Write the structure tokens for this entry.
Amino acid sequence: MLFERRLREGIADGSITAAVRRWRRPQVVAGRRYRTGSDIVAMSTVEHIAPGDLTDDDARAAGYPDAAALLADLTGPPDGQLYLLRFHRIDSSDPRDALAADNHLDAAGVAAIDQRLARLDHASPRGPWTAAALAAIADHPGVRAADLAAMLSRDTASFKIDVRKLKALGLTEALEIGYRLSPRGTAYMDFRR
């Protein structure tokens, strides 16, 4: 679940425990965990709410001074419904970090990654992309996503979404600018060469 950068500090320190989103249908499920960018939150409740039922307390829990400021800042489809999300930060490390650090791959581990990458390629409306994306990141660590996307004749937004899929497999790591292969990604690429 994406949160604006300005809210991430509040999520990390526990002062932000709610969000309001305008969606056509809920995009999160109560009881599940979601990454916020730098933290993991557990979603407690997801409830449809009318704009008039949103309180100033709800707005402050979402990082706004009052309900009017929150409503003025909302984006999303004009025909969407408002959803009030309540969550709490999970004080544990991102499981992707442990996966990314695991560079002990055997033939079975490589085959499992091959299978996951093949599924991603097969499901993509653009056709196979995983090998080219991994190679570009390996050859150009720390290069801006927009520049990597241009190298691959891709739009930046869909490229970033695809790189997050590679990160979920433990193959890449985000840097302050750009990406790099994780130790697991490096081991995988070395095995494949």
Observations:
- The longest helix spans residues 107-123.
- The chain has a mean pLDDT of 91.
- The two ends are 35 Å apart (CA to CA).
- The beta strands are 18-23, 33-35, 40-48, 81-90, 172-174, 179-181.
